[in-house]
Amino acid sequence: MGLKLVMYDWNGTCLNDLPLVYGSIKAIFKHYNVPAPSLEEYRATITSNFLKFYHDHGIPKNATGDDLNLIRKAHFEKNRNGAFLNPGLIESVMETKKLELFTGIVSGEKAGYLETRLREFGISQLFDRVRDGAYDKEAAFVETLDFFGIKAEDSVYIDVTYDGVSAAKNISIITVGFIYPGAYHTEERI
Length: 190
Hints:
This protein is α/β, with parallel strands linked by helices and 190 residues long. The chain contains 8 helices and 7 strands, in the order ββααααβαβαβαβαβ. Strand 4, helix 6 and strand 5 form a beta-alpha-beta unit.
């Protein structure tokens, strides 16, 4: 018994990319000629069900997730240098490694893209397992726990979103809601 695994979310938690993400949101709304919600409204209302967020804010119902992701991806590629690792991330993960704990990332980031970003930042070696494309976070947590042979209560998950923290709590993972001025969700939501 005891802590054996520390898992991190990527977007917003490891990577400070809210300005980049919000820029992509504005690009999507501009593409559809619909006024974008404010950054504050985005932080207060976005959920993992991003299609509902867009449709609720006036994006046509026939716009698919793939349609929106094409615009998002184009914006990300053009502005990828607008995101940076959160201060203290590397030191935090290295301290975790000194304690001989496993480290992992469980993220909804598009499958395959996260590995590229980890290499670009030179931090791939810091994580024992990366599970991207985790649209069903609970299932991704279970897969990760099974991979290490660790019980949920012997792990911790750090995230800046209500959805991620809730999914981890639902399966008895210890959670840390990471709050800072550029976090995806407001302090009240976390």
